[in-house]
Amino acid sequence: MNQSNKRVFLYSLIASLGGLLFGFDIAIFSGAIPFIQPELDLSPAQLGWVASSLYLGCAVGTMIFGKIAERLGRKKSLFAVAVIFGISSIAMGLSNHMNTVVIWRIIAGFSVGGASILSPLYIAELSPRHIRGKMVSINQLAIVIGILMAYITNYYLSFTAWNWRLMFISGALPAVLFLVFLPFLPESPKWLLFNGQREKGRKILGSLISPDQLQDEIDHIDRQKNQEHKGFAIATIFKQGFGFVLLVAIVIAVCQQFSGANAVLFYAPIIFEKAGMDVSDQLFQQILIGGINLIATLIGMRFVDKIGRKKLLLIGSGGMASLLVLIGLSFGGTFIPSYLLSFLVIAFIGVYAATLGPVTWVVITEIFPMQIRETAVGIASAFLWIACFSLTYLFPVIINSFTTLQTFLLFATICFAYFIFILFAVRETKNNRV
C-alpha cells in the first residue's frame, strides 16, 4: 500500500467511527428488550413503537444532514452527529417513561440517520476508484463492530441492576471517541472543489491520489459542476434523467431492510425465546451473531472490488431467500431439527454481512453524480430508514400474530423478488466515477 492509499485508509478509518455509532445504537436496544418491556409494562405494539422510533428520526436525519452536508461540508456535519448521539444516549438511559424514551430515541435517530449517509459519502469522495469499494466497506465493517460491541455490552450489563439504562448510556462512549479523532480529518476535497475552494481542495486531493490522476479528477468535477441545474433539488433529479436511477437506489435500500436480516439483528431475543432459550442464552447467541457478522463483513470487503456489486447482491438475495425458508422450517423441529436453528441463523447473517450489508451502501454512494448526490443519497437513505421503521415496528406484532414459519417465509419471498429485481434492473457500478 503506497503512502497516498495509507492516508486514505486512515481517514476512512476515522470517518467510519460514524458507522460504529450507527451500529452500536441500532443494536443496543435488542439487549434492553427483556428488561425494559416488563419495567415499563410495554405491549408488543408499544415495544415495536419504542424500538422503531429511532428509525423515524433516522428518516428525517438523512434528509436534514444531506442538506447540512451540502452547505457546511462533511466534517462539520459529522461533528454535529457525534454531539447529538452522545447527549441523546445519556438522556435515554435516564428516562423514566415510555414517551420520554421515544422522544430521545427520535432525537438519537437524527444523528444515526446523519451518520448513515455522511460516513460512506465522505469515504467515497476521498477514495480512488480502484479501492473505493473496499474503503466504503470499512464503514460497514465499523457498523458491524458497533453491533458486536453493543451485543457484548448488553450481555455483561444484563447482570447489573441498571441493566437497560446503562446499555443506553454506554452509547456516549463511542461518541466521545469519535469527537476525539474528528479534528484529524480533512474536509472532503471533492466537496471543496465543487464549492469553489479550489486550492484547498486540490491540495487535499493531491495528497490522496497520484499526480497523473489529479487533473483528470478536477476536470471531472468541473464538468459535473457545469452541468448543475439550479432550482428545487428533487425536481432537478428528474429533469436530469436520474428518476429511474433514484428508483433503483430506493428499491435497493428498502429491500436491504425487508430482507429479514435486521429483524434477526434487532429482535434475536424474541426469536430465540420462541425456541425456548432463557435470557442469558438469548444474549449470548447475539454475541455469536455479532461475531459472524464481523467475519463475514471482512470477507465481503475483500471481494467487493473483485467480484463486483451486482454479483454480490445476487448471491446475497438468493442465498438469504434459501436460508430464510430453512430457518422457518426449523422452528418446531417438524421438518428440520430445531437444534440447527442457531447454525442457520448465523449462516443467514453471514451471507447478509458479506453481501447486502456492505454492498447496499457502496451502490447508493456510487450510483449518483456529484451535482445531485447529497439530495439523492439522502432520499434513498430516508426510504431505507422508513422501511427500517416499518420493519422494527411491525415485527413484534407479526411474530406474535403469525407462526414463525409464516413470518420467515414472508421474508424469503421478499428476498426472492429482490433477486429478480437485481437481475433485470440493477447495473454494475464499481467502475463509476464518484
TrEMBL record:
It comes from the Bacteria. One of its GO terms (cellular component) is plasma membrane. PROSITE patterns: MFS, SUGAR_TRANSPORT_1, SUGAR_TRANSPORT_2. Keywords: Cell membrane, Membrane, Sugar transport, Transmembrane, Transmembrane helix, Transport. It holds the Pfam family Sugar_tr. It is a multi-pass membrane protein. It is found in: Cell membrane. GO terms for molecular function: transmembrane transporter activity. SUPFAM superfamilies: MFS general substrate transporter. Residues 11-430 form the Major facilitator superfamily (MFS) profile domain. The chain crosses the membrane at residues 9-35, 47-66, 78-96, 102-124, 136-156, 162-185, 283-300, 312-333, 339-364, 376-399, 405-426. The keyword Transmembrane applies. Belongs to the major facilitator superfamily. Sugar transporter (TC 2.A.1.1) family. This is MFS transporter.
